[in-house]
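Worked Example 4.2. Read the sequence first, then its structure tokens.
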Amino acid sequence: MGKDRNNTFMDFAVTMRFDINNNVSKQKDSKEAKERTKIYENYQLYINLSVLPLLHRVFIEGIKNGKITHQSLIQFFYNHTWLGQEFTDYDTGGDLIKYRWISVIAPSIHEYFIQTESALKSNNPFTNYIMPIDSLTLKFEGVLREFATILKVSTTVAGKGNVLREKYIEELLAEKEVQKYFDENDLLFFNYLFVAKDGMNLRNNIAHSFLRILISRKVR
């Protein structure tokens, strides 16, 4: 009976969840799963009440005053991060190709500024960020895979039928060598944003076209 006293009603409750298509699933979560869900719920409040308003103010005021432009932001990434580093690879024909990751994500950054600047200059203060969100979410996986490759971490794993497949984002983030370069807050943010079912789960929702509702935000 001593152990039972530590149990609460929630330890015996059955969780009912609605997926993005309003399908209902019932399951009796483990204590660890419930704790994880609680963490993501609190994290979502923190994002909505603190982080997003701060970023909104920084970028909107920065764009209004000409302090931040898509050129200056891209130039910063080019000069001060490995995204500006040149990489080489070979195409299917065996020809050498050269690329920089900043060139891959630059169109998404440009589109964000186009949407925001257009809203600030017009009578319609709302923006549509579907294109930059879709693009940056999927490109994040490629950037993370490249980062793991730089660290000499294998980005493939044996799948069904012992056939090699590319590791998923959560598998790459779970690699100990990759985790050395991120703190606990970084990993929580990445998992919450891209893959956690109790978070935004953008990678899954975008890949399967579940985000069918207009994504807009007032910029004034």
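Now turn to a second chain, presented in exactly the same format:
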Amino acid sequence: MIQTPNIWGQAISVYNQSYTPQKGEQLDKDFYMPTCTASKSCLGIGTCSTPIYTLDINGHKKQLCTTPADTILNKLYESIINANHSVDILTLQPGHIIESSITTGAFTAALKNALIALAKKTITTGQPINVRLLQGSFLPITLKNDAEGLIAQQQARTNLQLSQQTYLKNLVNALPKNNHLSISIGSMRSCQRGIVNCGNYNHQHDPFLAFAWNHGKIIDIDRAC
């Protein structure tokens, strides 16, 4: 179990730190975090560091301005590269499903680099490793239960499928050849409009509560859960 941010024993002010890029600062195209050469480049908020999760397929790392909130990316990377049999990741669908499925930003970049390291591991050992990505997805919240509403829901499903295909290609294309990773992506929802009781009390008739989806955030390595 990982708590993020981990505030035990720390002043809350430490975890209130965040980094808002200033005009003119250069952002890394993969991590969307400011690049740097020294901590003075980070405006006294972030720290200039070379995180392990920036290690790419060519063995290069990046210098980025990081804050305490970014330490979760270290745990993500280190957990995945230590897998021997399976990696299961459960997330909530990003708000802008057209832009990306499963994850966005630095989380995606760190995940991609971790899978590169894991793929190299399978080439060395010859042992296959299954990677399964599952997201809790949602339909557009519409009060219309007519033909127009059904069309909107169908379009949402189509967009979801296309975004998953794009996301999977993005991951696979970054991997070294002849690896033994098996990667799959899926989506699920608990229920949708048309079901009378969506896990709520029977007397609850609020139409907005006729929607539900899994909000879990889980990373399970080698079926440890």
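Notes for the reader: The domain at 71-221 is CATH 3.30.870.10 (Endonuclease; Chain A). The first strand starts at residue 47 and ends at 49.
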